[in-house]
Amino acid sequence: MLFLKRKVISGFLAGLFFAFIMLFINNKTIMTSSDSYIKWVDFGITSSALQKAYSYDVKTFGDENHIDWITLLALCGEKCGGNFKNLDLSYMDKCFERLKNGEKEEDIYQNEKYFNYYKEAYDAVIGGFLGSFYTKKEGGEWEEKYGLKAFSPIAGGYGFSHYKDFGNSRSYGFKRKHLGNDLMGGIGTPIIAVESGEVEVMGWNRYGGWRIGIRSFDGKRYYYYAHLRKDFPFNTKLKEGDVVAAGDVIGYLGMTGYSNKENVNNINIAHLHFGMQIIFDESQKDGNGEIWIDVYDIIEFLQKNKSYVKRSEKDKNFERKTMFYENLLKENGG
Fold first, then answer.
1. Do 322 and 174 sit in the same domain of this protein?
2. H or E, element range at 16
3. Taking the chain (334 residues) in consecutive chunks of 10 residues, what is each chunk's mean pLDDT?
4. Overall domain count for the chain
5. Structural domain containing residue 170
């Protein structure tokens, strides 16, 4: 009898501990305070989940009941607390079937607050990746398409390697966490604009060396490309304030940085530091409120869409082979 009581108490304490852990995870992930904008995002969607949600979105585009991938991912995020490694992706299949059969989001999720959080957070991260666009090959006609309009940051035909290094320790200047993903490759590899946007920053930084920062047109995403090539870091046609199209060549991989003096190679291994900052309120752009996410799985997912390039006949730059256009470019002066 004493053994039975101990077993019951032990089970109760284990359940209480599990509930506390889940509360801690949710509170850590969903930090919004009394202000109206999101304060923190732990982006935990796997590349396989991105691929599955993307396929469902494209598959139903044009249907009367188009199932968008943000909704599917938000339903899954609400289910697994944002950690997709703990999610059986068959749950996404079930959500898709229920939505396809006419059920609403509210018929599926358990907690409206968490669902709304994930939907807003995921839209801020990947909301500009899918949509309608136009492509034109050399000598061909413009063709309208729907699908993935974000590109791998490394040009097609160029190899690279990377691993999960987000949050690793860095010590140059001061001790800090690594807020991006390093893509190791050959010096001079053409670097590609992942998404259309405006060149917000372009020049030297003691940490990032030659670097370029591009802001998405909706202002929610800031893409940071650092350690670009010594002597020839950027596409020479670019300057701050310019509009770039997704898939454009913006610079070249190198190993500059870790130096107060400009144009110095002080990085041990040639690589592109690729970072992605999420901005819900302009006060988060610089300072203690910055939100940088782990982009490893995003880069893995984007390998399905690469921009292939050729050397320009006019100068030393590389340029894209296939022309790209989306309405956002016209709306923003591109």
1. yes
2. helix 2-29
3. 43 47 44 72 97 99 96 98 97 98 97 98 98 92 97 98 90 81 98 99 97 98 99 98 98 98 97 98 93 98 98 92 94 83
4. 2
5. 148-331
